[in-house]
Write a structure and sequence with these properties.
GART, 6 helices, seven-stranded mixed beta sheet
Length: 200
Amino acid sequence: MLRVAVLISGGGSNLRALLEECRHDSYPAHVVAVGADRDADGLAHAEAFGIPSFTVPYSAYPTREAWGDELLGALAPWGADLVVLSGLMRLLPAGVVTALAPGLINTHPAYLPEFPGAHAVRDALAARATQTGASVIAVDAGVDTGPILAQERVPVLPDDTEHALHERIKPVERRLLIDVVRGIADGSIDLGAASVPRPS
């Protein structure tokens, strides 16, 4: 059984979907802890499912590196095989990425490498793109530059607002995350490989 820790900043809709999937005996992963960089609404999902949670407030530390060291310390007791960044709106320090890789993945509301960064949905609309998407990647030292584990296109409709488009992307993002975690758990996705093949 793959032991998973999830890090969030907001409402945790992807987290909740993963927790619901983990209820099924056939799903080969289990969320052991949920962490946040602030008092995130999504921590309520952990409480509802009886999952331990912790908060390492970014604002309480003088540097990103100091915050990262404390985050690693908070993660350590749970012995997670995989750490999922699911709406964590914070760049991890390089030392944290090194410590957790290759068992570190991230969800992103765009069809990478298109529209990396924190405002992917807004950027897609600003670019007048006719399609965007959702991706799950292995995290590396860059910003949304790691190997792509799964991705899927989502059309941009002529009257889309940022909220409406993001709401259509979210269910795709959740499904991809659930599939990728399953693949890592059953060995069909090898995070230890030098490069992860893109899906055809």
